[in-house]
Amino acid sequence: MSLIKIADIAHVRFTAPDLEQMAAFLGEFGLKAERATDGVLYARGAGPQPFLHATAEGEPGFAALGLRADSLTDLERLAQAEGVAMEDLDAPGGGKVVRLRDPDGRMVEVVAGQAQAAPLPLAPPQPHNSAAAHPRQRAPLRLPRGPSTVVRLGHCVLEVRDFRTSEAWYKSRFGFITSDEIQPAPGMAIGAFLRCDRGETPTDHHTLFLLQSPRAPAFNHAAFEVADQDDLMRGHDHLKLAGRTPAWGVGRHILGSQVFDYWKDPWGHELEHWTDGDLFTAADGSNIADMQTLLGVHWGPLHPMMSGAAQ
């Protein structure tokens, strides 16, 4: 049993020495960034969440993971169990926040009661013809140029010192369920894809991935869902033309099945565009996978770790 069951990931926080540079990158990535009166740069997507990405001025770094509780009642239960205060959240959307430190000392902000933002318009999906069906007839496909349309934040990957310790901490507080545990050898677990427990409601294959790493504690990447595959490829071309730094992609993951495209912000933090991922309910259980499956792809370039080993 866990203290609460979170509803989803809420946001990621960073620090950077130049907020104008960060705002320019985020705009090219497909987020809408604005500087608040407190000096923090907040960026939202097209969905109803008031912000997905926040940057305060400072040395480059990852500052916090944000998770969204189902209700203020759940947030109060968490605060009481942890012996911490439930505070006002001074950020777009307001609401309340409980701040905790995970076993690696990383800040985890659990929020509830935020006011939703008005969703931004999405272009209607274009019908796609295949050998099996031809829904688009007597009309050409025309896609506008520009950045991807980021809709929401989907997951975050954190590198941890001790996987089992971190797994127990996150599961006992937030109700995560293992989708795939990573075992390089039988019985030797070094990480897991964790999804929210939403009962019978399907949820993303993973909201959090914990990976034991000699670099820990470290931020690995945060992943943002875009409108569809055409939108992802449009954004790929836009970032490439803007001279931004690619990290990995475009391809389709095996675990989670997402079409992915990874880029680096001006300070080397990896942000992913993804679309078309797997959804599971609580009843769908857990699986075990090896490192080759973790880093493998259905199509697209090999992970840099695998391509380097192959050379």
UniProtKB/TrEMBL annotation:
GO terms (BP aspect): L-methylmalonyl-CoA metabolic process
Molecular functions (GO terms): metal ion binding; methylmalonyl-CoA epimerase activity
Residue stretches making up the VOC domain: 8-113, 152-276
Record InterPro entries: Glyas_Bleomycin-R_OHBP_Dase, Glyas_Fos-R_dOase_dom, MMCE/EMCE_epimerase, VOC_core
PROSITE patterns (alphabetical): VOC (PS51819)
Domain of life: Bacteria
Region (Disordered): 119-145
SUPFAM superfamilies: Glyoxalase/Bleomycin resistance protein/Dihydroxybiphenyl dioxygenase (SSF54593)
Record bears the keyword Metal-binding: yes
Keywords: Metal-binding
Presence of the UniProt keyword Metal-binding in the record: yes
Entry protein name: VOC family protein
